[in-house]
Write a structure and sequence with these properties.
The protein has four helices and eight strands. By secondary structure, the chain is an alpha+beta fold. The radius of gyration is 36 Å and the shape is rod-shaped.
């Protein structure tokens, strides 16, 4: 029994029998930006090789010495172009891998900083300035200390160092007066900026 015309187009002959084409399992033609770029690079690599193959076929057909020289020069040019394309693709892939590694490291740093930030609380000092103080429940044996508020805001953990009545950030140069100096205040040698912490 003959197949209708529409069925003949969607069928393949196998051993005298008609079998429908398998359309299942085909990958949809939707690519991500990276896959599209890779597909373009592969096409760019294969185009010169296809041209080189066609040129090689021309060499077999042509026996003329002059034509042979022209065609072989074209063949070498196409092989060289394919080689240059492969080098460029390799360099681009290496750059993409390096960028991917760098972004992975940056994400890990940001995640670690988010965890570290939870250990500190913004605290107003007696002079009205602010610093981030280590929460006692997160000390885990660390001594009480303050972080520079400026550095904290840009994702840096910089411990403020005491210098007399001042707390100093050695990264950004911030200086924070802990308490106003007064005649009745204890001497600098006995001063504890973390008293009452």
């Amino acid at each position: 029994m003959p197949l209708p015309e529409a069925s003949k187009e969607s069928a393949l002959p196998i051993g005298g029998l008609m079998k429908p084409k398998n359309t299942l399992g085909r990958r949809p033609a939707v690519f991500s930006a990276g896959e599209s770029a890779m597909a373009q690079m592969i096409d760019a690599l294969l185009a010169p090789l296809k041209t080189a193959t066609d040129t090689a076929k021309g060499l077999i057909e042509v026996r003329d010495a002059v034509k042979w020289g022209e065609i072989s020069a074209d063949l070498y040019a196409q092989i060289y172009a394919a080689y240059q394309g492969a080098i460029a693709a390799q360099q681009q892939q290496a750059a993409m891998l390096e960028e991917n590694r760098s972004l992975g490291e940056r994400i890990a740093q940001l995640e670690n900083w988010e965890t570290e930030k939870q250990r500190y609380v913004l605290q107003q000092l007696p002079t009205g300035t602010f610093a981030y103080a280590l929460k006692p429940e997160y000390a885990h044996g660390e001594p009480p200390h303050y972080l520079c508020a400026n550095c904290y805001q840009v994702g840096k953990k910089r411990i403020l160092q005491t210098s007399g009545l001042m707390l100093v950030c050695h990264d950004c140069g911030s200086q924070i007066l802990m308490r106003e100096a007064s005649g009745s205040h204890r001497s600098r040698g006995n001063y504890d900026p973390f008293e009452g912490f």
